[in-house]
Design goal:
Length: about 300
């Protein structure tokens, strides 16, 4: 069965924003109902309720679609929301990407990326991520940034560029940074992390959590490259940013330079880390530095 790419993207943009509304409401109420799935791996009622409306609505609109979400949820009829399937015009898509085989699609959903940040009040690191993969490759992505100024939603993909909206359909003028600037994790201790990052000789070093926010810094042109060299990110953390960066020919691989694949049979964890960059030459610089660093350590 074929589905319209612009309708899928339209639904996902609005669902990411509805997810952000849930997250802000839970934060305002203060009743996070936090449970821990593992060490430093919290889940709140915002994670659960946001994922339920994303999955419930998408399953209703596109029966049979493959969705892999971070949380385990039970869906109810009340989780189905009304969305405008023509928010994004079909004409912006190249002809070959307007109709997609539903059996070749996988959506990777992180309803609340940066839950640890959410629980400690570092709200700028909180995002909602929906990545759209087709034939194993990330082709589109949506990142909603609920606690940033004006709560922007970034979206884009192969053949359609990078855009941002603030409740409306607005195009974002993306400007690649002139310098080699690297975003690295702030909270999570990385083995040999500082030693490796020093070898990069970046002109600017930025520290931020979680992966969605790190991706936003690259997508918005505030940094050229995001690097994480541990097996702590998952496909639902990276697919959205990967998909959006396809809109400008961005470069997303593991630290060995291998493309990250997103079909439903792939391991969920990105075991060899992540390099995400708007500039191929900067990504290649990181990959070569990692190879050299490992040969000496």
């Amino acid at each position: 069965m074929l589905i319209k790419a612009h309708r899928l993207l339209s639904a996902c943009i609005q669902l990411a924003e509805l997810s952000g509304n849930i997250i802000k409401s839970v934060h305002s109420d203060g009743a996070l109902q936090t449970v821990y799935k593992g060490h430093n791996d919290p889940c709140t009622v915002a994670d659960i309720n946001a994922q339920k409306i994303i999955m419930g609505t998408l399953y209703n609109l596109f029966p049979g679609i493959n969705i892999i979400g971070e949380e385990q949820v039970e869906l109810a009829e009340s989780d189905i929301k009304q969305v405008n399937l023509d928010l994004i015009p079909e004409e912006i898509f190249p002809a070959e990407l307007r109709d997609l085989d539903i059996n070749k699609l996988v959506l990777w959903v992180d309803p609340l990326d940066g839950t640890y940040n959410f629980t400690i009040g570092e709200l700028i690191g909180v995002t909602t991520l929906i990545g759209i993969a087709y034939e194993s490759n990330a082709i589109m992505g949506i990142i909603h940034h609920p606690f940033a100024d004006r709560s922007p939603t970034y979206w884009g993909g192969l053949g359609i560029g990078i855009h941002s909206c603030f409740g409306d359909f607005n195009e974002n003028s993306f400007i690649k940074p002139n310098d080699f600037s690297v975003v690295q994790t702030k909270h999570w201790q990385i083995p040999h992390g500082e030693a490796f990052f020093k070898t990069l000789n970046a002109e600017r070093n930025l520290y931020a959590d979680g992966t969605g926010y790190d991706s936003v810094l690259v997508i918005s042109g505030n940094a050229s490259t995001y690097v994480f060299n541990r097996e702590l990110t998952s496909k639902w953390d990276t697919c959205a940013g990967d998909g959006i960066l396809q809109g400008i020919g961005g470069f997303v691989t593991d630290l060995n330079g291998q493309k990250i694949l997103y079909d439903k049979d792939q391991p969920i964890k990105n075991k060899d880390g992540v390099v995400m960059s708007s500039k191929r030459e900067d990504a290649q610089r990181v990959i070569e530095a990692w190879r050299e660093f490992n040969s000496q350590n």
